[in-house]
Design goal:
Blueprint lengths: L3 E5 L10 H7 L4 E3 L12 H17 L4 H9 L1 E6 L1 H15 L4 E7 L10 H8 L3 H17 L5 H12 L2 H13 L11 E6 L14 E3 L6 H4 L1 H12 L7 H10 L10
Parallel strand pairs: 1-2, 1-3, 3-4, 4-5, 5-6
Helix pairs in contact: 1-10, 2-4, 5-8, 6-7, 6-8
Length: 262
Amino acid sequence: MRIPFFLFPGVACLRDVYEDQIRNLSPYFDVCVPKLLTPRRGETLECYALRWAQEVFHFRYGNTTESNVHERSEGCFIGGLSLGGIVAPLIGDFLQENGCPVHGCFCFAAYRDGTEMPESLRWQYRLLNPFFWHMEHVMARTALCFANPKDKLLRVLLHQFALSSPRTSARTMKLVYRWRSPCTEHEFPIWRIHAEDDRSLPLRFTKTDSVLHSGGHFITVTQPQKVNDFIMDHVTSLPSFTFLKEKSKVVACQPLNRVRKE
């Protein structure tokens, strides 16, 4: 049985932002990308993370059958990009408290806590009001009609803005710039990767485990192989998952059409 690997999307992001991770990690994990929730009025980032965690938990582990309880005890991996990487450790705390061990958490292009975000960046994000997101939505839909079909990267990024909800984007961005909570301790390992040229959440304001020299903010799309290698290197460093090293060699030798796609 493959254990779950929950990958949480960021602001204005859909499942597509993890397309490469879904394809390449599926031979080892049951990769799940929970849908981004629309924040409620006045909701804090911590309350939002708790609500998202509860929805994921009840969807995946909600019933109390013997097989379900066994699956929960097997644990999971979690991760997230940007906002998803910010809330992933908080979601991991909830899963742990409810009998689902978190073997590790991966944060892509995400700050560790609210104190790392400078006031100048908060003011920039305050300007991204609902009207901005509505215009971004309209322009992305228009640009998709003229984008080069062979430019996969551009089409994936445009697709995020074209199909995401402007209201959800505006409210989730508000969660980010209002977030001021200090760093907290977690009972599972957290691994972080960030790009030097990230302009959305600049690297100079945070500390990370691995630095990519390029890739911008959407590193799961722009640097998928390096992100996938980062994930597998840390997963296989855990004593319980060293067997995946041999399995990855077998999968790498298989024709692409034999690798299971989700």
